[in-house]
Amino acid sequence: MSLVRKRSVTIRGHRTSYSLEEPFFDDLVSIATQRGLTLATLVAEIDENRPREANLSSALRLYVLEWAKGGGNRAE
């Protein structure tokens, strides 16, 4: 079982935090690398596109899941 770890990030000048299990975080870092983005840029992109009723942590998990379902070769 993977423990949830809280992390902080600055998005558009606003400091916020999210909590992710290590496997989700590792995949998020990998996706950012594959897309040629910093982790902060990817998190900001996901935050900008998430429904307002969804929290950031959930949006990040769903993004990783969707990426995995798409084979990880999406052009964005």
Automatic annotation (TrEMBL):
<dbReference type="Pfam" id="PF13467">
    <property type="entry name" value="RHH_4"/>
</dbReference>
<dbReference type="InterPro" id="IPR038268">
    <property type="entry name" value="RHH_sf"/>
</dbReference>
<dbReference type="GO" id="GO:0016740">
    <property type="term" value="F:transferase activity"/>
</dbReference>
<feature type="domain" description="Ribbon-helix-helix">
    <location>
        <begin position="5"/>
        <end position="67"/>
    </location>
</feature>
<dbReference type="InterPro" id="IPR027373">
    <property type="entry name" value="RHH_dom"/>
</dbReference>
<protein>
    <submittedName>
        <fullName>Aryl-sulfate sulfotransferase</fullName>
    </submittedName>
</protein>
<keyword id="KW-0808">Transferase</keyword>
